[in-house]
Amino acid sequence: MHLLRIWKRCLGMAKNRLYTYSKKEEARTIQHITVTVTVDSKTGKEITTETVTTTTENWIVYTVIYSGKSYFEEEVFRLTEEQKSLADDYAENLTLFLEK
């Protein structure tokens, strides 16, 4: 039980570093195309009119980067190369078991 508490504490301390993100504000120009089809009442011919309206929209783009598996192996659990290999083997076996 003591080991479980240590493991929970390690994860709790690392949770604020699981990912990073950036925020960028940018203006984007958007074109809206409206097509109108009317029929000339005298000739019966269709007349197509295309109207292009350009607007500028303000966007906020967030980029989220997950710290990944290596972060846990190296920074949180500080695994040796042998332990990393063993963990990979366990994960592969678990994947094979769960896929059946």
Strand order of the largest sheet: 1-2
Compute the number of strand runs. Answer: 2
Shape: elongated
- Measured distance between first and last alpha carbons: 31 Å
Query: Considering DSSP H and I runs of 4 or more, what fraction of the residues is helical?
Result: 40-55%
Order of helices and strands: HEEHH
Let me know the largest β-sheet: 2 strands, antiparallel
Proportion in β-strands: 35-45%
Tell me the Rg in angstroms. 29 Å
Uncertain residue ranges: none
- What is the average of the pLDDT values? 85
Q: Helix/strand/pairing class, anyone?
A: alpha+beta
Tally of alpha and pi helices: 3
Written description of the protein model:
This protein is α+β, with helices and mostly antiparallel strands. The chain has a two-stranded antiparallel sheet with strand order 1-2. It has three helices and two strands.
How do you describe this structure in short?
The protein has 100 residues and is of the alpha+beta class. It has helices at residues 2-14, 69-76, 81-99, and strands spanning 19-39, 46-66.
Helices and strands, with pairings:
Layout: H1 2-14, E1 19-39, E2 46-66, H2 69-76, H3 81-99
Antiparallel strand pairs: 1-2
